[in-house]
Amino acid sequence: MVRIALYVLLFGSLLGGAAGFGQESSSNSGAQPAGVVPEAPNAADAEGPSAEVQAAEAAIAGSDWKTAEARLDPWLAAHPGDARALFDAGYVADAQNRLDDAAGLYRRAVAANPKSLEAHLSLGLLLARQGKTEEARPELTAATTLEPGEAGPALKARAWRALAKLDRPEPGTSGDTTAASNDLLEALKLSPETSADTLLAASLAEQAGQYDTAEAAYRRILEKDTKSEAANTGLAHVLIRKKQYPEAETVLRTALGKLPDDPALTAQLATVLAAQDKAEALPLLQKLHASHPDDVAITRMLAEVMTEAGDAAGSDQLYMKLLAASPVDPELLLAHGENLVRQGRFAEAVAVFDKVTQIDPTSGDGWSGVAFAASRTNQPSVTLHALTARSKYLPENASTYFLWATSYDALREKAQAVAYYHHFLDSAAGKFPNQEWQARQRLQLLEKK
User: In this predicted model, what pLDDT tens digit does every residue of 52-61 receive, in sequence order?
Assistant: First the structure.
């Protein structure tokens, strides 16, 4: 179903990267970076950091970045190879959202002490948040091979979890659900399962087509937290995939009662209502579109539902807006052409469908559109050419048999017309009474001796 395919795009566009590495820093509210917190000063450690670095770390503990910088900058000027001070300075830059500076300092810390799990992990997390996944992966992988020391196994588990997020499929990327699942299992060997782990496991199961497993995981989360947006949207997504629309509707209405106007949940409810041909889908999508007028997925979905509601002209206005931004998108062109046909604008529709076939010569739907629209503009030769091209990609049906017959009839090619009228009657089986009456009338005339 086209609508479900559009929903997948819509779901991704509304959630964006909410479940990705943005979460690593979202809890910081700008106050703390996503990396590893520097160790607290330990005066009893004879081999510990200098007094300047200890003072800097005390300031870091109080989120006093300026004081920390004032302590670290002169120290590093005199001791540029101090791995701990470099790591602390990277953390301070990270906390102030000076990401390029932070990455540079973390890299220097790694170079000064290649066995520092903390430095590799913080650099990997930072690069992942910046979308530099190919640079992040070796840092995170290195972190999983190093000993965490006093930081404990939870730190290495965090590296495995970060790798799982890198490996999972995302919109626009293929990913590797098996690798991501294995990464997560390694993390769970080192630390207890969290709700975030369960969400990730559910998402991976869903992406692997294991819908029952995913559903069970989402329900486990909701038993503990009924307001979890991620679990509610995830469960609804699975139910939509399983085409259990009434059950999905119940889940979504309950969730929206607790999270009113949530865009992802609203989009899902609109999808479910449209799949059940419920009239409520249209006003819901119109409201969603009003809140997100530039969202391509919402606009496409609204346009489709408007078409099905009988508003071809209104739907076409939305498709024309989308085509202005993507003029060679064959799916948009097909939808536009179909709306033109519904409005009786057949000559324009021929041109649009022809453009589809120029973009994609293997588009059976494009050739079908040319054939039908050309037949309505009395172009039997064009119709036959389109039907011939279509037959390479799609099977014949009663409608195409009728177009073959009437086109040959218009060109006075009697034998071919008779043959296709019979094909049509054999396949129509009473489903097209008007055309069947016409075919029988023509056969009476054409088969007279």
Answer: 999 999 999 9
